[in-house]
Design brief:
single chain; two-stranded antiparallel sheet; binds {5-[(3-aminopropyl)amino]pentyl}boronic acid; binds zinc ion
């Protein structure tokens, strides 16, 4: 399968992440994508191609225009305000307030941020746009008849909602890709999110839509980021009722339990019979990942890919998380090799 990749991901190179009260070096760093790319090349998975420039129209199908303006402008406004650090929100509309303050940059940050973990810096917008183009390039290959493609997206996307960024995500690459399949004639699309963290952004984008099935396997949100979404009683709303499914799993989860949840999710996907599948591919469920409490092994990712491959669907893989730099390449590419062997 082809891999879409852009070196412009490197423009997202924040130096700070607010973590446990300290400003630390971000877990979501450029080396992640370089490690995955190196392993793609070594493994002989297939050609690596640069993205085509799709412009913002397909992104506007998913995201709010004022939110996109904010992402484009925030760094310039932040520096113009005299701030010296990276752009981190420090105030939000309180519970019971629907206010969407749009005055100063400080107010705008709180309007659009999910949390304070994701500093915005110079180049963030450009990298996020490149990641969306990478996803769209992979989707175009699949729409044109390739069995599968790998979008080596960075920054990731699955926590980003219509007008919300955070959890290292700005534009929802997987959602943009799923929508482009529909706009290209697919009647139904499924998104399977195997990242350790719940894909709250993708869930919220498609929550009321019957033609997009969203399923997520993740660390129990009672214990894990993003905390406020990902429970089993979140099943969709209105026409989308029944088209969302969550599989929260406990600390120490190994492939025995994780694979059962994957099996259940894959059966639901088969029943739904989508025309295309998007996999939000995060490998942070790995046993040594610094941000997770699962215990998946490198070989388990081969089995994961093989099960997804058994669905026999046109499939786009979009990279999400994975923070163990030693293994992110092997774990990610194992899913793709497992898929191809199925
Ligand atoms: C993004 B993705 C570290 C807290 C980390 C943010 C996690 C974002 C994960 N002390 N909080 O789903 O891999
Ligand atoms: Zn994650």
């Amino acid at each position: 399968m082809l891999t879409a990749y852009s070196p412009d991901h490197r423009r997202r190179d924040a130096q700070t992440e607010l973590s446990d009260g300290c400003l630390v070096a971000p877990f979501e760093c450029p080396e992640r994508a370089e490690q995955v790319l190196a392993r793609v090349r070594e493994s002989g998975l297939g050609p690596v191609v640069p993205p085509r420039a799709f412009g913002l129209d397909p992104v506007r199908r998913i995201h709010d225009p004022a939110f996109l303006d904010f992402l484009e402008q925030v760094w310039a406004e932040w520096t113009a305000s005299g701030a010296e650090g990276e752009a981190i929100p420090s105030i939000w509309p309180p519970r019971g307030t629907d206010a969407r303050a749009t005055g100063t940059v400080t107010a705008r940050l709180g309007t659009y941020a999910l949390g304070a973990d994701t500093s915005i810096t110079d180049g963030t917008w450009e990298a996020a746009c490149a990641a969306a183009d990478v996803a769209l390039t992979g989707a175009a290959a699949v729409a044109a008849g390739d069995r599968a493609a790998f979008a080596l997206c960075r920054p990731p996307g699955h926590h980003a909602a219509r007008d919300l960024y955070g959890g290292y995500c700005f534009l929802n690459n997987a959602a943009v890709a799923a929508q482009t399949f529909l706009d290209g004639g697919a009647g139904r699309a499924a998104v399977l999110d195997v990242d350790f963290h719940h894909g709250n952004g993708t869930q919220s984008i498609f929550y009321d839509r019957a033609e997009v099935l969203f399923l997520s396997l993740h660390g129990d949100p009672d214990l894990a980021f993003p905390y406020y979404w990902g429970r089993t009683d979140e099943t969709g709303v209105g026409r989308g009722d029944g088209a969302t499914g969550n599989y929260p799993l406990p600390p120490g989860t190994t492939y025995g339990t994780w694979g059962e949840a994957l099996e259940a999710a894959c059966r639901r996907i088969a029943d739904f019979a989508p025309d295309a599948l998007v996999v939000s591919l995060g490998v942070d469920g790995y046993k040594d990942d610094p941000l997770s409490f699962f215990a998946l092994e490198t070989e388990d990712y081969l089995r994961c890919g093989a099960r997804i491959g058994k669905l026999g669907l046109p499939t786009l893989f979009a990279l999400e998380g994975g923070y163990d730099l030693e293994t992110i390449g092997d774990n990610t590419v194992n899913v793709l090799l497992g898929f191809e062997g199925a």
